Amino acid sequence: MENLTEQLTNMRKAQTRAGHTRRITVKNSTVVSTIWALLIAALIASLKTLAQEETPQPGGIRVGDRAPLFTLKDQNDREFSLEAMLKKGPVALVFVRSVQWCAYCQLQTVQLSQNLEKIQAAGGQAVMVCYDSPEKVKRFAERGKVKIPVLSDSDSKTIEAYGMRAKTGAGEQVGSSQHGTFVIDQSGIIRSKPYLTSFEGDEAVNALASALKDANSRKP
């Protein structure tokens, strides 16, 4: 009888220890999840702040100016010329710093790519422009399953023509672009320069679609 009582006592102690361990595990799991959520929120906030700090409203070319012509190739080695694109409708040129080392640029490019049909439904086209080499652009596009054309301006001539060359940067960052967008109507005139500094929600997508709709209403 004493042995049975002792066994029952030991079982209760073991159950108490197991319950305490489970509570600790659950508590630790909750703490870890909370920490990760805070880290992700901090990362997103820092990327948005960085973009806002490094993204002055595009200068050089003003609304109402004629857009410089260019011919560049995308991630699939397809040739895109502004002249040919404008025959189909207004065009949005979205300049980004780099799809290789700029995390914000990568996130925004993926977001716009995922909403490409919505942008096209506004009656226009959208392309990204960066200074990365064709090989780097291709690798990024394949990894991120990017559908939107990402045009490689590896010699930065188009970036220069639009006054978008970054004023800061060293090493591999020399020749990169500032963040900025130009919406061009079918007559080749820059109609707006929407300020896209978000890769969350629909803010950037809606701003781009609205600008394209407005440009589309201005028939040549």
User: How many helices does DSSP assign?
Assistant: 7
What's the CATH C level of the largest domain?
Answer: Alpha Beta
The helix/strand class is alpha/beta
CATH architecture of the largest domain: 3-Layer(aba) Sandwich
Shape: globular
Instruction: Specify the CATH homologous superfamily of the largest domain.
Output: Glutaredoxin
Topology, number of strands: 7
C-alpha-based Rg, rounded: 26 Å
In which range does the helix fraction lie? 40-55%
**How do the helices and strands follow one another from N- to C-terminus?**
HEEHEHHEHEHEEH
Note the beta-strand portion: 5-15%
CATH topology of the largest domain: Glutaredoxin
pLDDT < 50 stretches: 37-58
Average pLDDT, to the nearest integer? 81
Major β-sheet annotation: 5 strands, mixed
Kindly report the spatial arrangement of strands forming the biggest sheet: 5-4-3-6-7
Distance between the termini: 101 Å
Tell me the domain tally: 2
What does it look like?
With 220 residues, the protein is an alpha/beta fold. Strand 4, helix 5 and strand 5 form a beta-alpha-beta unit. It has two domains: 54 residues; 146 residues, 3-Layer(aba) Sandwich (Glutaredoxin). The N and C termini lie far apart (101 Å). The chain has seven helices and seven strands. Strands 5-4-3-6-7 form a five-stranded mixed sheet. A two-stranded antiparallel ribbon has the order 1-2. It is globular, with a radius of gyration of 26 Å.
Provide a quick synopsis of the model.
The protein is an alpha/beta fold and 220 residues long. Helices cover 48% and strands 13% of the residues.
